[in-house]
Please model this.
Amino acid sequence: MENCPEQQPLFTFGVIADIQYADLVDGSNYTRTRKRYYRSSLQLLKNALKSWNEAAVKPEFIIQLGDIIDGFNKNHDASDRALDTVLSEFSSGPAEVHHVWGNHEFYNFSRSALLRSRLNSTLHTERSVNAAPADSEIYAYSFSPVPGFTFVILDGYDVGLLGREESSQQYKDSLSLIRQHNPNEDLNCPVFKGMEERYTMFNGGFSKVQLDWFDSVLSLADEKQEKVTIVSHLPVHPRSTTPICLAWNYDELLSIIRSHSCAVCFMAGHDHDGGYHRDKKGGVHHLTLEGVIETPPDGNAFATVSVYEDRMELRGYGRVRDRVLMFAQDKSNIVNAMTGLQIS
Ligand SMILES: Nc1ncnc2c1ncn2[C@@H]1O[C@H](COP(=O)(O)OP(=O)(O)O)[C@@H](O)[C@H]1O
Model:
C-alpha cells in the first residue's frame, strides 16, 4: 500500500463545556434524572488540559463554552475561590482561553463584575478583537486566529433576567417578554408547550444591537471569503438540542447565520446531553457539546478540533464522539434567508 503523508492541520483548538465546578458532594439536576459531579469536574478539566499540553500540534486557543463554576458556589460564599481554582488549572494549559458566559456565570457574578473579570477574555488576549459596541455592556467579540478564519463569541444573556439590575430597562423589557410566554410565578419553571419551553429564566437571548453587530461581522467575513465559527452558551438550532435549552430568539440568530455564506459551524454548551445537526439551509454544523458536570469521574467530555481548508475534524474524548465537519462546497446560491427564500 502506498504511504500517504498525514496532512497537517492549519491549526487546532480545544473545546470544553459546562464544567460547573464546586467543592461539593455529588448532586443531581433539577428533575433528578442526571447525576452532577461537582468535584470530579475539576479532574476532568485536568484530563483535557493534559491532552492539549501533550498534543503533537498544540492548540492555538481553547474555548470554554460557559458555566465554568456552579451556581451553588454563591450559596457557600465560594464563587471567587471556585473561579480561582478552575482558572489556575486553565493557566497550566498550552494556550489562551476564550470564555463564554452561561447562566451559572450570572448566578455567581453580576454582569458588571463579569465585564471586569478574568472571564472577560477581550481584556486578556493578545489577539486583536472586534468587540460589540462598548456602551452596550454586551460580551460579544470576534477574532481571527489564522488568516481566513474567524471565531465569534456571542452573549446569550444580553436579553434576559440574569445579571441585569432589576432597575434597568433591559431587565424590565426582558421580564415583559418572558411573561408573554411563561405565566408561571417561578420563571425557572417552563411551560411544557413544545418550543415555548425555552422561555425560562435560565435562558436568554440576543438584543437588536448584538444581532446587528453580528450581522455586520458576518458581512465583512463574506466579503473576505473567510470561514466563521460561532460560539455561544445557548444553542440556536432546534434540532441540535431540546427546546428547554434554546435561546429565546434562536430563530433571529439562525436567520442571520443562514444569510451568510461564511458561516461554517455553531458551537454551544448548556444542554449537558449534547447534540448535533447539520442545517439543511446553508450546511452549517450545529454542535452542542456534552457537559463535563454530568460526566462520570471515569469518563471525559472535551474535544480537540483540527482545522483544514475544507473541513474541521473534531476528535472527541469520553462521551464526545468524533466528527468530520465538512465545509459546504458552494454556498453562492444562498439567498438571504430573511427574505424567506430557501437555499436550493
Ligand atoms: N423545571 C424547573 N422548575 C423550576 N426550577 C427549575 C426547573 N429546572 C431548573 N430549575 C432551576 O433553574 C436553575 C437552573 O437550572 P440548572 O439545572 O441548574 O441549569 P443548568 O442545566 O444550566 O445547570 C436552578 O436554580 C434550578 O433549580
About this structure: The pocket of adenosine-5'-diphosphate is lined by residues 29-30, 67, 103, 186, 188-190, 202 (CB under 6 Å).
